[in-house]
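queue> pop job 88
queue> type: inverse folding (structure -> sequence)
queue> payload:
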């Protein structure tokens, strides 16, 4: 077995090589090996300098995720880095691949840093509800200043080696042989240069104060409700005002406070849930087909967004529209995305030209004969989609994958228009398709394993977060949305205004309330679905007609300037509308409803109970494979606050027995709507949680 850290020498220079594939994660064995090797090299009188380098494809890219749910083991990373920084001999960190989290903190604790131009560095701890806990908040600002340090830590995204060089975080970029370059650099050095003693980044007090002020605003607005961002700001303030040792102690206290928080538990859960969502049975049984050419049928909002996502990933795309006029509009929809980027200075004309060279438009289905997958993105009507699939069936090569982008429609009904039903899947992109990360991959009856695997391969190519869904009306997300949307409508009819409901939802951590979301999507979409389902509705179920009354007035949301909210002069943020309040009151009066008040707490308790109860049915019917898939769906597709982990994670922390009691109490007034899922009752009876189901 290969040692995770080896010590070798080149002349008088010690080389400490970390070898823990695939990304040299900082496991206990790596930390121990590095700690021991540093002590040995520092004590060796023949050694004049030390180089720390990663084997394989990367410098250490962070902590070992397998240790996340285990007690911390010595030596802990802060102690390892302190020992590196306190070496009496110059220590050079040689960076390639990614140096992230604890890996970058090792580099910051080293005396000098050299890197390949392709290297990336960063501190992504914020995505786990944490902050850099091994001195990163105290060392980083000392080198690059408070403003950039806060930007790196609050964004949690990696920066290039060139950016790091310009910021003073890397001392030298080299081409070619990194090991030899690091040895040459180490041979030049005469003495240690400890980051903890650096002052250049903090010399301008006014700049530091301005950076702290701006970061506080970001933490309390854009990152509202989260603990870690505010703690990062506090740590940088400590860096600027306290001696290094005191700042380190403060950082440690803040780190453990974040680690013990429900927010960190929620975000760590979300991290693992996202990784698990791509692991589906079909992909373990079959290999995906190569994806070299993609077809998209439809150039509207969704078709254009899907096309942009594919073009951006490097895939050539053929777009099909019904006539040349529609095709021109489709191409214009695609180009608009890039023109906006050009206007913002985020893309050049030459870059746009390079991307659009992969685009081709046509009005002939026959031009799709050689593509590997076609995604249908036409109007959301079964007859229209079936017509497209019948055409595709005639022209596609035998092993091509046929996919429908639909939000609700039965994929089996669509696929019945073909003679190759085993080649059909649903791909539910979220709008805007080129931006939103979630992709529901809907598996109908009889879909071949390789077809499902190819859907997941496409998600990876496009940089999407895939979730497997069974074929059910609305699949996972929209089916559950329908249920808690009904719950919100009931509360609105019973006495809460849409603005009170939305305020409670936003206070919970969502970026917007459900009525603002309806306005954004277009109220006419839901209206069309309700009219189509009118004959299928159970007469015993409560039906709230408020949204219908709004649509009857031609108020469809942002696109018409008013919906639940007013949008004067094309505003993107709505204001409450007194006419809507009057309309709601009139609807209540028609039904002689005794109006009551709802607290924000009760609004959210009912809202989430409806969400989780329907999610249980989605699980029980096998539409979702596991509770964590539902968490991923809502965190990335519906705005559920990621720091709460997702609705199923939140329900576990809320208490399933408490949730079941809530549903029973609500059911006293509406026993038809509030029927507890048998799965929820079973879990409570057995003392299990949703997380137990995740473990299998």
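queue> result:
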């Amino acid at each position: 077995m290969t040692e995770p850290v080896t010590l070798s020498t080149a002349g008088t220079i010690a080389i400490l090589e970390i070898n823990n594939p695939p990304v040299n994660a900082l496991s206990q064995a790596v930390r121990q090996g590095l700690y021991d090797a540093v002590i040995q090299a520092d004590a060796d009188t023949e050694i004049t300098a030390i180089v720390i380098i990663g084997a394989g494809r990367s410098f250490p890219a962070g902590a070992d995720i397998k240790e996340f749910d285990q007690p911390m083991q010595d030596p802990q990373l802060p102690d390892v880095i302190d020992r590196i920084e306190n070496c009496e001999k110059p220590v050079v960190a040689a960076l390639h691949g990614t140096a992230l989290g604890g890996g970058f903190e090792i580099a910051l604790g080293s005396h000098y840093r050299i890197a390949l131009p392709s290297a990336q560095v960063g501190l992504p701890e914020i995505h786990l509800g944490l902050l850099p806990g091994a001195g990163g908040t105290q060392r980083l600002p000392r080198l690059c200043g408070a403003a950039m340090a806060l930007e790196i830590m609050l964004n949690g995204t990696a920066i290039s080696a060139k950016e790091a060089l310009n910021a003073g975080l890397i001392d030298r970029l080299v081409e070619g042989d990194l090991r030899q370059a690091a040895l040459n650099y180490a041979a030049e050095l005469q003495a240690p240069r400890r980051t903890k003693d650096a002052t250049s980044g903090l010399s301008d007090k006014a700049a530091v104060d301005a950076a702290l002020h701006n970061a506080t605003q970001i933490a309390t607005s854009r990152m509202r409700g989260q603990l870690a961002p505010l703690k990062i700001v506090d740590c940088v303030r400590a860096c600027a005002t306290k001696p290094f040792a005191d700042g380190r102690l403060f950082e440690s206290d803040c780190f453990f406070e974040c680690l013990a928080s429900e927010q960190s538990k929620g975000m760590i859960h979300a991290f693992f849930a996202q990784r698990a969502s791509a692991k589906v049975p079909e992909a373990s049984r079959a290999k995906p087909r190569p994806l070299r050419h993609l077809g998209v049928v439809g150039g509207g909002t969704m078709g254009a967004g899907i096309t942009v996502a594919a073009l951006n990933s490097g895939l050539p795309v053929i777009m099909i529209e019904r006539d040349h006029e529609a095709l021109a509009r489709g191409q214009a929809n695609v180009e608009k995305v890039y023109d906006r980027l050009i206007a913002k200075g985020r893309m050049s004309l030459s870059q746009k030209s390079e991307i659009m060279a992969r685009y081709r438009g046509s009005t002939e289905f026959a031009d799709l004969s050689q593509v590997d997958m076609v995604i249908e993105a036409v109007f959301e009507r079964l007859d229209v989609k079936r017509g497209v699939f019948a055409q595709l069936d005639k022209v596609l090569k035998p092993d091509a994958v046929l996919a429908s982008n639909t939000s609700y429609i039965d994929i089996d009904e669509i696929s019945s228009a073909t003679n190759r039903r085993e080649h059909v899947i649903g791909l539910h992109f979220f709008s805007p398709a080129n931006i939103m990360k979630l992709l529901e991959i809907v598996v109908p009856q009889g879909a071949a394993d390789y077809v499902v695997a190819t859907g997941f391969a496409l998600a990876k190519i496009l940089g999407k977060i895939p979730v497997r869904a069974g074929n059910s009306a609305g699949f996972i997300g929209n089916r559950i949305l329908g249920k808690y949307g009904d719950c919100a409508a009931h509360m609105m009819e019973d006495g809460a205004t849409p603005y009170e409901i939305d305020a409670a939802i936003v206070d919970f951590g969502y970026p917007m309330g459900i009525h603002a979301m309806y306005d954004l999507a277009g109220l006419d979409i839901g209206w069309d679905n309700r009219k189509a389902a009118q004959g299928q509705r159970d007469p015993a179920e409560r039906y709230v007609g408020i949204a219908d009354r709004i649509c009857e007035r031609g108020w469809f949301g942002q696109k018409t300037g008013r919906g639940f909210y007013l949008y004067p002069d094309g505003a993107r943020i709505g204001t409450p509308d007194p006419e809507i309040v009057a309309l709601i009151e009139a609807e209540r009066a028609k039904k002689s409803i005794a109006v009551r008040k709802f607290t924000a707490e009760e609004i959210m308790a009912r809202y989430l109970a409806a969400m989780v109860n329907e999610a249980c049915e989605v699980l029980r019917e096998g539409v979702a494979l596991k509770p964590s898939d539902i968490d991923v769906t809502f965190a990335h597709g519906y705005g559920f606050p990621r720091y709460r982990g997702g609705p199923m994670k939140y329900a576990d922390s809320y208490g399933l027995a408490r949730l079941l009691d809530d549903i029973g109490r609500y059911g006293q007034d509406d026993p038809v709507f509030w029927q507890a899922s048998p799965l929820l009752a079973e879990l409570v009876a057995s003392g299990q949680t949703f997380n137990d189901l995740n473990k299998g």
